[in-house]
Write a structure and sequence with these properties.
Length: about 130
């Protein structure tokens, strides 16, 4: 039996602010976004199973799907609690085959995680699958 959970992609994006040199630098934060499993097509769009970690407790984050033209479509939002890992399903109006990346934005609209979307191999192209 194939693994029950396939992790497709992950990203760690360090956030470092740029100041004028006279102020203390803001703290560095690391947010991780991992796609867990296959995207699911629907007539209305796509579900994308994801897990997030490194979120600041009490902050809200926007989830976005991106297409090849760079256009973003909402994928929902999450509110972080106690630094816990958040597993959710992004829901976006973009069709599965058009999604090229997943993005997480903080409350100020800054990108804190960016993960390219790589298609899963089809069973016929997977060398480990039986013929």
């Amino acid at each position: 039996m194939a693994a029950a959970l396939i992790v497709a992609a992950g990203a760690l994006v360090p956030l470092v602010g740029v100041g004028n040199g006279d102020e203390d630098p803001p703290p560095t934060a690391t947010v991780a976004l991992v796609r867990e499993g296959r995207m699911v097509s629907h007539p209305w769009g796509t579900e994308v199973p994801v897990a997030l970690s490194g979120l600041k407790s009490g902050e809200s984050y926007r989830l976005m799907a991106v297409n090849a033209d760079g256009a973003r479509a909402s994928g929902g939002s999450v509110n972080a609690t106690s630094g816990a890992r958040v597993s959710t399903r992004m829901t976006t109006a973009l069709r599965k085959e058009t999604i090229t990346a997943l993005v997480v934005e903080d409350e100020e609209g800054r990108v804190v995680a960016h993960v390219p979307v790589v298609p899963y191999p089809t069973p016929s192209s997977d060398p480990s699958s039986p013929a």
